[in-house]
Design goal:
Length: 210
C-alpha cells in the first residue's frame, strides 16, 4: 500500500474513476486522506520504542527528538530486568518525569510510545486490515467537502446532487468515527498497573475545604 493505492481506493468508493473527468483532484484527495490518517493515528497509533539516556540525579527525560508523537504508553527503567520494571511518569510538553522511588543514574530508559502513521508515495505503516477504514474516512471527508462547495451552485440533479453527496459522506464519516471509537486505544483494557501515568484522582465524596 502507498498513497497512490489509497487514492485509488478512495476514488473507487466515491465512484470517481474516470480519469478524463475527475470530480476531485489528486491534491484534494491527498488532503482528505491525510486528515483520515491523522485521525486514525490518534486512536490507533503506530507503536514504537525509543532508547533515551537518563541524567544522573534527575528524574526528567528530554523526549523532544521523539517526533510525530501521539502518546507515551510506558517507560521502562532500569532496562534488562525480568519481569520488566515500569515507572510511573508524568508528561509536560517534551519533558517526561519519572515518579517512582528510583532516581535515574544515567543509564538508558526505554520509552514505549505511539506516533502518527505514515502514508507516502512508497510505503505505509497502516495495518492492512485498516486500509479500507481509512479509505472510508477519506471518502467521507471528500464527499462532505464537495457537497458544501456545490450546494449553492447550479446543478442538473440526477444521482450526483450535493444533498446525496452530503448524506453519503456523513454516513461514511459516522461509520469511520464509530469504528475508531470501537477499535481505539482508549477503549481497550491493557495491563498497565505498573506504569500508569500519574494523574491525581479527585475525590467525589470528600470535601477538603478551600
Amino acid at each position: 500500500m502507498n498513497l497512490a493505492d489509497m487514492r485509488t481506493m478512495v476514488r473507487r468508493d466515491l465512484k470517481d474513476e474516470n480519469a478524463t473527468s475527475y470530480r476531485w483532484t489528486n491534491d484534494e484527495l491527498d488532503r482528505h486522506i491525510a486528515r483520515a490518517v491523522r485521525e486514525f493515528s490518534e486512536h490507533i497509533p503506530y507503536e514504537q520504542k525509543a532508547t533515551k539516556a537518563t541524567t544522573t540525579g534527575s528524574r526528567d527525560i528530554d523526549i523532544s527528538t521523539i517526533t510525530s508523537r501521539v502518546m507515551v504508553e510506558a517507560v521502562e527503567y532500569p532496562v534488562g530486568k525480568f519481569p520488566r520494571v515500569y515507572q510511573r511518569f508524568s508528561l509536560w510538553a517534551d519533558t517526561l518525569t519519572l515518579l517512582g522511588s528510583e532516581v535515574p543514574g544515567g543509564a538508558n530508559a526505554y520509552i514505549y510510545y505511539g506516533k502518527l502513521h505514515t502514508l507516502d508515495a512508497s510505503s505505509s505503516t497502516i495495518p492492512t486490515e485498516y486500509e479500507d477504514l481509512v479509505a472510508a474516512g477519506a471518502a467521507g471527508y471528500a464527499s462532505v467537502q464537495w457537497a458544501a462547495h456545490a450546494i449553492n451552485r447550479v446543478n442538473i440533479g440526477g444521482d450526483a446532487t450535493p444533498e446525496k453527496f452530503l448524506a453519503w459522506g456523513k454516513e461514511r464519516l459516522s461509520y469511520f468515527k464509530a469504528e475508531l471509537k470501537r477499535l481505539g486505544r482508549r477503549n481497550h483494557a491493557r495491563v498497565r498497573t505498573l506504569y500508569k501515568p500519574y494523574y491525581p484522582v479527585s475525590s467525589k465524596t470528600t470535601d477538603y475545604g478551600p
